[in-house]
């Protein structure tokens, strides 16, 4: 098999390691290093009292383990080998330190490796960690063997649980993207069908008055040209949104009115009915926006308001600002709630899927979206959607 082609399991594991944010990687390092220094370091200091030169050597090995944990998210197999070897050396220098304790850093790395590498790799690492089991039996008898094997297996199992959780979250994100694309495709289909129907009527009218009233015929032809350009833009959006399996019919009730920023007051009214204070600010004209941008803007505002109602604890006021200019439209929704339960940034399943949908809406029309808590409290969703990309 071509070495340049990764198996799905390997590709997903590599992606999981690459996508670990720097802040999360640092938190993992500091947390695991603190655990090793607190547990193993204390044990070494107690067991090494009065052992001469062995104590400094053991302390240096423990510090090396803590430093090696810095790279466990990038190269867990190598860090596991380093920590296992240094842990065995600590145990050889100070047998009073249990083998299970001396290999704590290796067990932590085994957990990370189990969560971020293909299963066959983690199983091989688990088997390698079981090799010192006879030494644990010789030092502590059946109880020592049982404790050692139990901690190793628990570390590997915790990594597998984390791996399954990450796979589930990725699957939910992919499903949310597919559902949003299907919804967009349905709406674009309706808009294009309406535009083509109008073009047919205009073409017939132009033909009827072509000889007697050429000015009126030319006006109809110009309208046909404008509508054709709009329809082509909508079809480009449809092609972007189309993916295999995107035909799920989950996009609202038949006959539903087309979403548009012209209905923003109506949308705000439904939210006000729940007791929420909604401020709507408009700058510029939104009448001439391409239908795709108009719909995407409306849906982003709608989803942001829904997230405020569901996930913004203590929120009683939300501000919606729509700014239209010649090159695009900017949409901003800000509430005054406290920290979200689980965070709309992805902690709660519904809020996370809502953000995925909004990001997909913005991306498909060539725009950008950012969302997150504000320093002074509240949550902001801000999107910029260009008009030239779909016209």
What is the structural class?
alpha+beta
- What oligomeric state do the depicted chains represent? single chain
Determine the fraction of residues in helical runs and give it as a percent range: 55-70%
Global morphology: elongated
The rounded distance between the terminal residues' Cα atoms is 45 Å
What does this protein structure show overall?
It is a single chain. This protein has 391 residues and is of the alpha+beta class. 65% of the residues lie in helices and 10% in strands. The protein contains 13 helices and five strands. Strands 1-2-3-5-4 form a five-stranded mixed β-sheet, covered by helices on one side. Strand 2 (317-325) and strand 3 form a beta hairpin. Helix 2 runs antiparallel to helix 3 (54-68), helix 4 runs antiparallel to helix 6 and helix 8 (133-208) crosses helix 13. The protein is elongated, with a radius of gyration of 30 Å.
Helix and strand topology:
Layout: H1 8-18, H2 22-47, H3 54-68, H4 76-93, H5 99-102, H6 104-116, H7 119-130, H8 133-208, H9 214-241, H10 264-272, E1 277-283, H11 291-311, E2 317-325, E3 328-335, H12 343-347, H13 349-364, E4 368-373, E5 379-386
Parallel strand pairs: 1-2
Antiparallel strand pairs: 2-3, 3-5, 4-5
